[in-house]
Amino acid sequence: MILRAPAKLNLCLLVGERREDGLHELCSLFEALSLADRIVVEEAAQDEVVCAGVEDTNLAAIALAALRGRGWERPPLRVEIEKRIPIAAGLGGGSADAAALLRLAAPEVDGVSELAALLGSDIPSQLDPGLAVVSGVGEVVEPLPPPSEHAFVLIPDPAGLSTAEVYAEADRLGIGRPPEELGAARERLLELAGEGVSPLDYADRLVNELEPAALSLRPSISEALDALREVGARAALVTGSGPTTFGLFADIVEADSAAAALPPRYAGAMVASPASFG
User: Fold this and answer.
1) In this predicted model, what pLDDT tens digit does every residue of 12-47 receive, in sequence order?
2) For the whole prediction, is pTM greater than 0.85?
3) Is the sign of the CA dihedral 184, 14, 238, 6 positive or negative?
4) Could you state, in order of their start, the residue ranges of all structural domains in the chain?
5) Domain spanning 2-272 has what CATH number?
6) Is the peptide bond before 243 cis (omega within 30 degrees of 0)?
7) Most buried one in 3, 93, 155, 166, CB count within 10 A?
């Protein structure tokens, strides 16, 4: 069995104040991308998750163990993940892999949505990949209609960034909105994106409030943002906690042309469109 695990992009990300439990409330517009990991699942002698390039236990292995703990009775499985989503890039690759396994088990295991929220803040939105407004600490997912045509150029950074370090830097910089502001922002995002229009129609309203923290830790990100603007991006932002940057374009043809026009040092840039999933 072959599963597809789409990356997620934070088209917009507003961050709340640090809570007593160390987490941050957020309000974000998530979009699933055509960029996706490929996962091969087959029966084996014992459960095993194999993912080249991931040294630590990954979220897919944690998800599989959690499903067994919930009584999932499928025979032992070998799960081999072909990583196409860059690691530690702000694109939710590990969460996407875990969500793919949860989707597989959902017809046979109760409480998969609750389990997703326990495993990671990006996982609930990736159970049903698409466009959604995400709030709380990631567990509140409000799906939206598919948007009109647009595409992206992504510039990953091979060094990656730690999400925990970016949030710690955001706290140091004093970044964080009170709950009432996040609630109002949620209403605005639902209104902006709720009619199925292209993000191009509200590109000037897109912002990532973790971007200053990511730039503080990795100043070279600003050069990638400038490069995207110079090749015609309608908006250029960091996604999630970074360090991946993205440019918004009208369609896949425009995005392809823009990627080809980037300076040689960004030869690893990737072109992606909204995911066609399900």
Assistant:
1) 999 999 999 889 999 999 999 999 999 999 999 999
2) yes
3) negative
4) 2-272
5) 3.30.230.10
6) yes
7) 93
